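Two quick folds needed for the group meeting slides. Do the first one here.
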Amino acid sequence: MQEKGSTDKTRNDFHLSHLASVGQIAAGIAHEVKNPLTAVKGFLQLLKERNERDYIEIAESELENAIDILQNLLHVSKPDLEEEPYVSIDLTVELESLTQLFQDQFYRVSVHTNLQEPGTYILGKKNQLKKVFFNLLKNAFEAIPEKGSIHIEHLSTEDEVTVCIQDDGVGIPHEKLRMLGTPFFTTKANGTGMGLTLVYSVIYQHNGSVEVQSMENAGTKFTITFPKETKNMKWKEVICLELEQTTNLTDFFIVNREVFERRLLMEAVSVRDKIEEILAIGNINLLDNAHKLVLFVIEGKEYEVIAFAKQEGITWAKHSLTLAFKLEWIQAVRRVMWDFLYNYDRQHNQNASKEHYFNLEKNINQLMDQFLNQLFISYSHFKDDLILAQREMVTDLSVPIIPLTPSTSILPLIGTIDEARADTIEDKVITQIGNERIETLIIDLSGVMEMEPDIVRKLINVLDGITMLGGQPIVTGLRPEIVKMMIRSGLSFEHKAITKGTLQQALVDHLK
C-alpha cells in the first residue's frame, strides 16, 4: 500500500504539472490580451453617453469578467507577481476574521468552529493565504443551496498545522474530484474554475498539501496541511531597532514607548484601521492597554495580568467587539515585544549566558497565554450571563404579575400560550403566591385568542395550586371560542375560581 506522504506528494506533483503546463500559455495570453481589453473598456465608458446604453453595459460587464480571469491566470502563472513578504501567521486569527465576512449567510448556514491551539504559527504570505481560505469558505457557503452547516477546524501537531473546512452541501461527483484545481475546470454553472486553481497554487507555494473528500448530496471536506514554523525555516527577521538604553527592562519599554507603538501599528495590519472605531464604540484605548499589558508581563505580575484579562474580556463582550481582532492584536503585541527583548538583550547581555533569556521567554509566554485564556473565559461568562438575564427578562415579561394592593395582584396574559409558557406560568405563579402571600390573584385572559385543551388543564392545575396556598383565583375575559372548546372537552373552572366577564368588572366587585 502506498504511504500517505507518498500519495500526497504524487497528488501535489500531478497538480503542479497541470499548473506548469498552463503557466507559459497563461502568461502569454494575459500579457497580450489584457492591455487591449483594458483599452476597449475605457472606450466603452466614454460611449455610455450615447444610445444603446444597455448593450454597452453588458459588454463592459463581460470585459470585466475577462480581465478578472486574465488577472487570475497571471497570479497562477507568476504567483510572486505581488511582492509580499513572508511573515509568521496564526491561522486561527485569519479564520475567525474571514468567517465574519459571511455573516449575511448565518441565518441559513450554521458555522461551527473548533480552532485548537491558537498561537501556533506557519510562515507565509498573509494576503495570499487569506484569498485561499476566503475562496474555500465562499465555495462551502455556495455549495449549500438552502439550510445547512459548515465545520471549520484548526489542529496542530509537532510539525504541522492542519485546517479542515467541511460543508454538508451538494458535494462533488467522484469522477470530477481529480480535476479540482485544474484551470478552467468548475462544477458551478457560472464558475470560471480559477478560484480553486489559485487555492492549489498558493498552498503548494507554501509547501502545503490539499486533500479533498466529497460525496454527492452529502458534502465536501477540504483538508489543508502546512509545515509549522520552526527554527529551520526562513524566519521573519527580528528587527534591530535604534532604541534608548536603560538600566532595566521596565524602563526600557517605558522610555521607548513611542517606537513600540509605531512598530505595533505596523505589525497589526487588520486591527490598525479599527483602532478609532473601537475607541468610539467602547472607549477602549488599544495602545494604552497594550503598554499596560507589556509592563505587567515583563514584571511577572501574574495577579495583575489575570485581573486585566478579566476586565478586558468583560469590556469586549459588553460592546460586542470581535474576538478575532483582539486575538490578532495580542499576538502582534507578543511579536513586537520579542523584537524589543531581542534589542534589549543585544544591548545588555552580549557576553552573558542565554539561559536567562530562555527562562524569560518561558515566563513571558506563559503569562501571555494566561492572559488570552482568562480573556476568553471572561468574555464567554459575560455573554452567558447576558443571555441568561435576557431569558429571565423574557420570562418575567411573559408572566407579568402586577401588584394592585398588598394582598391583590393581576396577571394579564396576552398572545399564545404554548406548553413551555404554561409551565412558566405555573412555576412563577405558585412561587410568587407562596413567597409574597398574595391573597387574591386576578388572571385576565382577554388577550388570549385561543387555548388548546392541554393548556386549559395546566391552567386548572395552577388554579388548584393557588387555592392550596390559601389564595383566591379570579379568572376574567374568557372568550366565547375558549368557553366552547372547554364545554366540548368537558373542562370547567367551576369550583376552581371565580369568573368575571371583564377585568374592569372584577376590579369593581373586588375593591368595593
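Then this one, please, same format:
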Amino acid sequence: MKQRFPSPSRRSRALIGAVAALATIPLVLAGCSGSGSASSGGSKALSIEDYYDATYNPVYKQCAKEVGATVTITHVPGAGLISKVLQQASSRTLPDVLMLDNPDVQQIASSGALSDLSDYGLSAEGDVPGVKAASTYKGKLYGLQSNTNSIALYYNKKLLSDAGVQPPKTWDELQAAAKKLTSGSTYGFAMSNINTYEGTWQFLPFFWSNGGDEKDIATPQAAQALQFVEDLQNDGSLSKSSVSWDQADVNSQFLAGKAAMMINGPWQLPALNAKKGLEFDSVPIPTRTGAETVAPLGGEAFTVPQTGDKDKMQLAGKFVGCLHTQKTQKALAEISGNVPTNLEAGAAWASDHPQVASFVTTVKTARARTGELGPDWPKAATKIYTAVQLALTGKADPEAALQQAQSQNQ
C-alpha cells in the first residue's frame, strides 16, 4: 500500500505559481464543453480523478451504483496533479469529481475552479473541526474529506520494555527515554527533518504545541521547540541523517531496529504489521508540558469542479456525498489505514482498531495547515523547514535560524 500522507514535497514548490496561473484562466464555464459537457444529454457518466492507485476503485464503483452513475477513473501521479488541473481548467476538461490534497483545496478554490458544496446540500457537520476548516474558503465549503490522518509517536515495545522505559508524554520524558534507548547502531528517536514540506509536517507538533505561530516563526516559543529537536540530535539520540530522511526513510529505520521510537503516520501500518516479530504501539506526540498535542491534519478532499454542466455537477455532488457517509468513511479507512473524519465514526473506529487509537485522539485537536494563512500556507511551510535545516546542519542556532528563515522567505 502506498504512503497515504499527501507529501507536499513532491509538488508544492510549484503550487503557488500554478495557482497564480490558474487564476488568470477564465473559469466562467457555463455552457462550455468538457468532461461534463452540456451536450451530454443527461448522461449518468462521471469522471473521477485522484492521485492514488486503484485502491479506492471498488468504493468509487459502489458509490456510483448508489447514485445511479457510471464512472471513469483516472489516477494521476501526485507530482503532476496540479499541472494537470491547470491544463484541464484551460481546456475546459476538468473532471466531474476531483481529489485534492487538503492543503491545496483553498488555493484551488480561490481560483474559481471549484463549486460550493452547499449547492448540493452537503456539509461537514459532525466532522473534525480542522478537517472542515481545511476545505473551507471565505466561508464556503469546497471539499469533503472522508478520511484524515496525522502523526504520532510509534515505539518498539520490546526495546522500551527491556530498557524499563514508559512511553513518554512530555519533552523531558521523550529526551530521557531517547537517550536511554540509544545503543550501538540503534538511535532512541527518529523523525524526518528533510528540507521539504514533509520536514515541516513532522516538526509542526513540536512547533504548534509549544505556541509557535506560522504568521511569525521567529518567536521564543518556536525557538524553544527547535532547540528541543536540536538537543535530541546533539546528545546522539537523533541521527544527523534525519535532515535527509523523508517519512518512508524514517519508517525503514524503525523497521530495521535502528530507531526505538519514531514520528510517523497510520499509512505505515501495513509495513509495520508485515514485519515479522515487530511489536509496536503508538501514543500522541509528547508536548513540553504534557498538554494535548496540536498536530497537522493530512488526507485528501473530494471536490466538484466547475465544469459548466449543472446536471452532472449535481450528480457529482451526490457522489461526493456518498463518499462522505459514515459507512463509506469506514470502508475507506479500512483500505487506507487512516481514520474517519466524522467524530462519531472516528470514536467507533478507534474502539474497533486500537492501532489507530492514538491518531483518532490526535486529530481531535489537530489543525489544518491552511487554517490560519489559507492560500499563503506554503510560504510559512518553506520558512519552517528552512529554519530546521539551518539549525540541524549547524549553520545557525535555533533563534538565529528562525529569524533568518523568516526574513529570507517573505
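Slide caption for protein two: The two ends are 38 Å apart (CA to CA).
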